[in-house]
Amino acid sequence: MTEIKILKIGGSVLTDKARLESARMKEIERIAAEVAEIGSGLILVHGAGSFGHIHAEEYGLGERFDPEGVLETHRSVVRLNEMVVESLRIAGSSPVPVHPLSSAVLREGRIETMEMEPIVEMVKRGLIPVLHGDVAMDRARGAGIVSGDQLVSHLARALRPEIVALGTAVDGVIFEGRVLAQVRRDDLVRIGSELGASSGVDVTGGMRGKIAELLDLADEGVRSLIFNASKPGMVWRALAGERVGTLVEGGL
Ligand code: IP8
Q1: pLDDT by residue (tens digit) across 32-76?
Q2: 161 lines ligand 1 (CB under 6 A)
Q3: What is the pLDDT of residue 39?
Q4: Which atom from ligand 1 is nearest to the alpha carbon of 209?
Q5: How many other β-carbons are positioned within 10 Å of the β-carbon of residue 200?
Q6: CA pair distance 219, 202, nearest whole angstrom
Q7: Angstrom distance (rounded) from CA 50 to CA 53
Q8: Is 166 helix (H, G, I), strand (E, B) or coil?
Q9: Mean pLDDT for all residues in the chain
Q10: What does the alpha-carbon distance between residue 134 and residue 107 come to, in Å, rounded to a whole number?
Q11: Which terminus of the chain has fewer CB atoms gathered within 10 Å of its CB, N or C?
């Protein structure tokens, strides 16, 4: 089977997080063009940004089960997903939407089961599965939020991709004003207090949540890159195997 690459693009790149459901179409189109140059073997995951986070908070989805909140939050992220899928198609790729609400079940906010077979078959046929942060059924809480970062680490554990790259709106993990070339678990004590929450409404933990997720993945032997997807050319470079941004790796 083709080597797999997993790319995540954060909601802060694709949307204006301060304004409800405002997509940055130019950014979506630019990234779609960079992805199209890479070709097949790719799984794309995107964050929700101002599609999803604002609804999830409004309905208190982290704390209580709310049927309308499940529907409205899902519908909102699906609207962004459709824009991403359509831009990829126009750029010449063969994307297909994959919605975690219909394919994953959580327990206490963590993925317990997720359909992987359709995703594997899609990649084998040269399609690009496009997943997104979503609301999902939770066996303990009724419903919960599954972030794009958690989806990336779940997919990467199962599929052992050659590249895992997470595009954000910053240059990587920044400590004392400089981008760290790599981060290991031991570094957390030193840099922990500087790791910010994300700007705008974010129910899944910003940079801190992202690093926690990626360090767990690194412990299982899968390294990942956090890089700036808002800078033109960086998505392509990350997918081409360049070491851009910050590498999250396991301890020695
Ligand atoms: O933007 C969150 O996904 P993320 C999904 O990847 C929802 O953290 C529905 C808020």
Answers
A1: 999 999 988 999 999 999 999 899 999 998 788 999 999 999 999
A2: no
A3: 82
A4: 8
A5: 17
A6: 26
A7: 6
A8: strand
A9: 93
A10: 15
A11: C
